[in-house]
Amino acid sequence: MSLAWQPRGMTLLELVMILGVATIVSLLTLPTAIPWLQREQLRAAIRTVQTGLELDRLEALKRHRPCRFVVDTGSNVVEVWDGMGTNGTADDRLLHEFALPSAVAFAHPEGTPPVTFDDLGGNRYQVLFTADGTVASGTGSLVLRGGGLYQRLTLTVAGSASLSTWSGSSWHI
Predict the structure, then answer these.
(1) Which of 144, 137, 135, 138 lies closest to 117, judged by CA?
(2) Using CA atoms, how far apart are residues 43 and 91, in angstroms rounded to an integer?
(3) How many Å separate Cα 39 from the centre of its chain?
(4) Burial of 80 from C-beta contacts in 10 A (0-12 / 13-18 / 19+)
(5) Average pLDDT for residues 17-26, to the nearest whole number?
(6) Could you count the other beta carbons within 10 Å of the beta carbon of residue 86?
(7) What is the gyration radius of the CA atoms in the chain, in angstroms?
(8) Residue closest to 140 by CA, chosen among 153, 123, 121
(9) Phi-psi bin for 38: left (phi > 0), alpha (psi -120 to 50), beta?
(10) Whole-number Å distance between alpha carbons of 80 and 21
(11) CA 2, CA 142: separation in Å to the nearest integer?
């Protein structure tokens, strides 16, 4: 007979106790975790829009012709289009498309329109970058809401974008 210690598995009671404690901890942290996740999705969405705008500007510079940045507030999609150097949009070519998280929404805290870029109709808005990277039309702002937080991206004629956050009464950089 050996007196050496032999490992044994967990009993059913120990396993139920561990699962019960894990469930209680999960339920206690859930009310703070969901808004936090939504705020992180908002930050990711605003970065996606910034990246799309910068990508559109760079495509215009690289291709030496106008390129369009299009926001569809109905489907939460942003697109980068090559204008192909023509005046019409029928021959434009889609270069990039980004889907924003469904947890974010286009909304303004003061009830004004959340997007002030050029209105194309049908929940679509655009910014047109010229071949030299400046904004020919569509300067304005775009506001997204997620997790109780509002963030605004404002685009200037020079093509630069600034980010601000709503404090409850005003915008702060």
Answers:
(1) 138
(2) 34
(3) 10
(4) buried
(5) 90
(6) 11
(7) 24
(8) 153
(9) alpha
(10) 49
(11) 75
Looking at the chain, the whole-number percentage of residues with pLDDT higher than 90 is 64
Given a contact cutoff of 8 angstroms between Cβ atoms, the answer to whether 79 and 92 are in contact is no
pLDDT of 3 above 70: no
Q: Which domains does the chain have, with CATH numbers?
A: 12-172 (3.55.40.10)
> Are 76 and 100 within 8 A, CB to CB?
yes
94, two tokens? 């889609």
pTM of the model: 0.77
Give dist(CA 67, CA 92) in Å, integer: 9
Buried b (16+ CB within 10 A) or exposed e, 124-143: bbbbbbbbebebbebbbbbb
